[in-house]
């Protein structure tokens, strides 16, 4: 056979048709075209299979639901957050044992879908049960059990967050710095997903309190003094090596032409350095810093911090916005540098920036779904922590970490001082109307400062100053976290 | 028990298809046919196994015995085809024949799953087409006047297309079919063949600029009539065939460049002039925003492909009938949905291997006229597959052409079969001449 191959090869090479190269070219072109198309098809299936199943226009969801029961959603230590139960007549209903506690993050599945119910819909309605079970279920005339989803959520921390936010509107996010796992996500006002079918109409009509909005990921707030993190980062970038020589004499207000700005409650901070301006959240000093910045470069820094961009998360979220341009007035520039003006941010976004600072500049993508198991506990798919990349250099992160530690040591967050662990963070009191005193209380920070593990971001709407209202909540959250997982003592 | 069969056969079908595709690629290892005999037998066995598994699935899941009859008919047909054709024409190209049967079998099976009544009609047409096509190689070995009718081909083609434009039925918004005695024809499918004969006849001995220009005018008339009938896919196929045949016949790369530039300019002009072209492009760019109307077809097709994933939802377990015109324009999406994307990609590879076989044949033909026919038909065949598969998965805008041998549509399957048997006829002639020259088998 090999011999024949040889002779025929010889013969064909000896007598090629004149247009051999042109025909070969056509052949190669079409093969390349089809290769490209196949790669596209594989890419499409590999990346968008779930979006396709989850789209409400896709009638195949009903087909899957008619064959499988919707799977169970668990917390990270195996407590049931949502499950489908059957009554005597085999009617299915979706039960949420913690009622309001996980209303936004776990969501609901009967009036459209939200939260994990939406994000993990594909897994919940598909089944990976064994073929023996499928046969047995087929014989018995019952559906197959859908796959179960384990989340990263921690019931204890979620409970503390919910309790602390109390009757206030607002949001709390607790995440693991090194993995991006979301431990708690609370948004108030909340609702009871068990009754979603009955309260749905009412929720839709009540536009003023927007109960269905997940404030943690979709709520857009003025960042207030927490924005000084960005202003500080830009100043450090523009003045490498010299930024800590900065000095300013605070007289309680800052004036530039017609524009005037005051420190919170008119406080007079006296002579301040860069660190103490940040720690004491001195508006006048930061207005002064803001005016010295290159505006185009500042906008680039903000772009790099994902302002105005889609965040690398799989759950529904709003886009933060911050606009700085050469044409903007001094008044606007001053307002923007201290986090007022037109700037808006979601608690999720602020949490991600804080996590990046805590994690030496590297942002781990936040995620809620940890793994998917079939009914016998076999892991079908597990989600690993993944990095988005660096939002800032390691040195910049280290500098910001030190500034944020100073906020706790001798600044606006001293209520976090003297605990078993060292915390770091930044407070904010974002004024949302012109009447004095009406402000949202912000805190975003992490602990332990030496080797950060957990990051919290808190916003309490209309409560007052961040130092008075948000910081104590942070302390309880940190305590709850370290109660479960005590700080590891450095062994000498 | 049946649940086991259904659950596992999904993976078996996929595995067998991968094996079949591997056989296709493996067969290219040999320059000459006879070394491949065992591979061809393996291919035939795989084809019957896939057919059997698919139909067993259909019968088990639907509990409907009617599939059994169609199964019997299809298998008898395929068996006859793979045995009869080589028996009549000893020198036929087995690889092309096997792949044709494979594609026909998958097509008939899939159409019967989508619409049983249509499958019966399709089966009858396939049968008639095969009987008719069997005469073609014989015809080619006798007839010698084909080269002399160049202008007749063009005249007949343009006449037929114009008739459709004037008298045709409007189906799916395009004026492309005529009804004669209860049978709906799509003449453009047959004009394709005439068109390739015309190009081959015009360019086989003379390739002067004047000659190319004259053919350009006539080819242009074909394309314009098709555009006016709003058969955009057809117009594109004719255009590409023209550019490629001119390029290969003249061996002048400037014509290829001119073709690409001219084609792009024409595409821009069509976009500006015709609203239906703009809608197609719009629905391709962002189908999700127009999911209720212009983007409906394509998004439903994407749902089908995406929901099917690698191994498919299983025959009769998906919902492909929600895609409008699924059995004609979107049969590839329905195959991906129920038999899986791996199966779908194998199917594409089988089609591409047909194309490569055709091109290999063209590379052996020293008579430029016959070479251009084989080349032109091959280029048309592969480009049509590109249009329909690419359109269904949003790789390119939708043009609404059929998947040759697989889609429902009598004219399409008949004309493609004629194309393949013309190639077979030329291939057989080539073998016989080779025997004469070398004096041995």
Task: Give a short overview.
The complex is a heterodimer of chains A (492) and B (441). Chain A is of the alpha+beta class and 492 residues long.
List keywords for this structure.
heterodimer, A: 492 residues, alpha+beta, six-stranded mixed beta sheet, five-stranded antiparallel beta sheet, 39% helix, globular, disordered N terminus, B: 441 residues, mainly alpha, three-stranded antiparallel beta sheet, 3 strands, 74% helix
Please state how the strands of the largest beta sheet of chain B are arranged side by side. Answer: 1-2-3
In which range does the helix fraction of chain A lie? 25-40%
Low-confidence stretches of chain A are 1-14
Strand order of the largest sheet of chain A: 4-3-2-6-14-15
CA-based gyration radius of chain A: 28 Å
Task: Spell the H/E element sequence of chain B.
Answer: HHHHHHHEEEHHHHHHHHHH
Specify the biggest β-sheet of chain A: 6 strands, mixed
Characterize the overall form of chain B: globular
Largest interface: A-B, 43 and 55 residues
| Proportion of strand residues of chain A | 15-25%
């Amino acid at each position: 056979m090999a011999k024949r191959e040889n002779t025929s090869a010889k013969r064909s090479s000896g007598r090629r048709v004149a247009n051999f190269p042109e025909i070969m070219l056509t052949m190669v072109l079409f093969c390349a075209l089809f290769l490209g198309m196949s790669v596209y098809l594989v890419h499409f299936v590999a990346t968008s299979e779930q979006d396709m199943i989850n789209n409400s226009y896709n009638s195949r969801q009903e087909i899957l639901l008619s064959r499988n029961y919707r799977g169970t959603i668990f917390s990270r230590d195996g407590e049931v957050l949502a499950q489908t139960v059957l009554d005597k007549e085999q009617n299915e209903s979706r039960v949420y044992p913690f009622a309001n506690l996980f209303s936004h993050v776990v969501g609901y599945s009967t009036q459209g879908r939200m939260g994990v119910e939406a994000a993990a819909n594909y897994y919940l309605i598909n089944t990976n049960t064994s073929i023996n079970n499928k046969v047995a279920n087929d014989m018995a005339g019952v559906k197959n059990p859908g796959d179960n989803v384990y989340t990263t959520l921690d019931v204890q921390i979620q409970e503390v967050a919910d309790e602390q936010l109390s009757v206030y509107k607002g949001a709390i996010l607790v995440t693991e710095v090194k993995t991006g796992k979301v431990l708690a996500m609370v948004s108030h006002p909340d609702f009871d997903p068990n009754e979603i079918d009955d309260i749905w109409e009412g929720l839709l009509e009540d536009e003023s309190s927007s109960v269905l909005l997940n404030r943690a990921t979709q709520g857009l707030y003025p960042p207030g003094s927490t924005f000084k993190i960005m202003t500080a980062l830009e100043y450090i970038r523009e003045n490498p090596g010299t930024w800590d020589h900065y000095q300013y004499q605070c007289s309680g207000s800052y004036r530039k032409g017609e524009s005037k700005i005051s420190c919170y409650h008119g406080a007079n901070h006296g002579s301040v350095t860069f660190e103490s301006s940040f720690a004491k959240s001195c508006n006048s000093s930061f207005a002064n810093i803001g005016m010295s910045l290159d505006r185009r470069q500042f906008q680039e820094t903000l772009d790099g911090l994902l302002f105005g961009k889609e965040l690398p998360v799989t759950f529904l979220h709003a886009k933060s916005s911050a606009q700085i341009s050469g044409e903007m007035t001094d008044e606007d520039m001053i307002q923007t540098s201290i986090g007022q003006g037109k700037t808006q941010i979601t608690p999720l976004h602020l949490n991600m920036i804080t996590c990046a600072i805590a994690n030496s500049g590297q942002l781990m993508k936040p995620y809620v779904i940890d793994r998917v198991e079939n009914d016998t506990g076999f892991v079908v798919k597990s989600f690993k922590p993944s990095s988005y990349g660096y939002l800032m250099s390691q040195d910049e992160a280290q500098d910001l970490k030190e500034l944020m530690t100073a906020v706790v040591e001798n600044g606006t967050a001293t209520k976090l001082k003297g605990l078993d662990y060292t915390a770091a963070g930044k407070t904010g009191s974002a004024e949302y109307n012109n009447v004095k005193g009406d402000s949202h209380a912000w805190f975003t920070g992490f602990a332990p400062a030496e080797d950060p593990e957990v990051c919290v971001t808190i916003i309490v709407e209309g409560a007052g100053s961040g130092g008075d209202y948000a910081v104590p909540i942070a302390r309880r959250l940190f305590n709850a976290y370290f109660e479960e997982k005590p700080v590891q003592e450095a062994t000498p | 028990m049946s649940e086991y069969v259904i659950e596992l056969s999904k993976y078996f079908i996929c595995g067998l298809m991968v094996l079949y595709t591997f056989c296709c690629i493996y067969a290219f290892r040999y320059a000459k046919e006879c070394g491949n005999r065992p591979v061809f037998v393996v291919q035939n066995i795989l084809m019957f196994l896939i057919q059997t598994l698919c139909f067993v699935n259909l019968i088990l899941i639907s509990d409907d015995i009617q599939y059994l009859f169609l199964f019997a008919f299809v298998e008898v047909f395929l068996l006859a085809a793979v045995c009869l054709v080589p028996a009549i024409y000893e020198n036929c190209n087995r690889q092309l024949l096997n792949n044709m049967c494979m594609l026909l079998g998958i097509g008939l099976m899939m159409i019967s799953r989508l619409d049983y009544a249509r499958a019966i009609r399709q089966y009858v047409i396939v049968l008639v087409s095969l009987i008719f096509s069997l005469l073609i190689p014989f015809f080619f070995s006798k007839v010698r006047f084909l080269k002399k009718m160049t202008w007749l081909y063009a005249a007949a083609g343009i006449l037929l297309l114009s008739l459709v434009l004037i008298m045709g039925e409007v189906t799916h918004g395009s004026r492309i079919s005529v009804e004669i005695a209860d049978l709906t024809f799509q003449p453009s499918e047959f004009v394709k063949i005439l068109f390739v004969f015309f190009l081959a006849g015009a360019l086989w001995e003379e390739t002067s600029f004047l000659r190319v220009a004259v053919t350009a005018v006539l080819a242009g008339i074909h394309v314009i009539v098709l555009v006016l009938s709003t058969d955009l896919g057809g117009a594109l196929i004719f255009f590409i065939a023209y550019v490629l045949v001119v390029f290969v016949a003249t061996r002048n790369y400037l014509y290829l460049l001119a073709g690409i530039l001219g084609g792009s300019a024409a595409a821009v002009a069509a976009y500006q002039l015709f609203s239906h072209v703009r809608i197609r492009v719009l629905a391709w760019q962002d189908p999700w925003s127009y999911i209720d109307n212009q983007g409906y077809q394509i998004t439903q097709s994407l749902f089908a492909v995406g929901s099917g994933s690698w191994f498919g939802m299983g025959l009769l377990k998906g919902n492909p009938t929600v895609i409008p015109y699924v059995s004609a324009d979107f049969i590839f999406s329905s195959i991906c949905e129920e038999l899986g994307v791996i199966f779908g990609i194998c199917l594409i590879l089988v089609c591409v291997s047909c194309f490569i076989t055709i091109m290999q044949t063209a590379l052996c033909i020293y008579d430029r006229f016959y070479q251009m026919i084989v080349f032109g038909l091959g280029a048309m065949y592969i480009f049509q597959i590109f249009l329909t598969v690419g359109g269904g998965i949003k790789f390119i805008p939708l043009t609404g052409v059929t998947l040759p041998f697989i889609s429902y549509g009598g004219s399409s399957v008949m004309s493609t079969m004629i194309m393949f048997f013309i190639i077979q006829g030329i291939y057989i002639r080539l073998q016989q001449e080779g025997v004469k020259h070398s004096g041995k088998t």
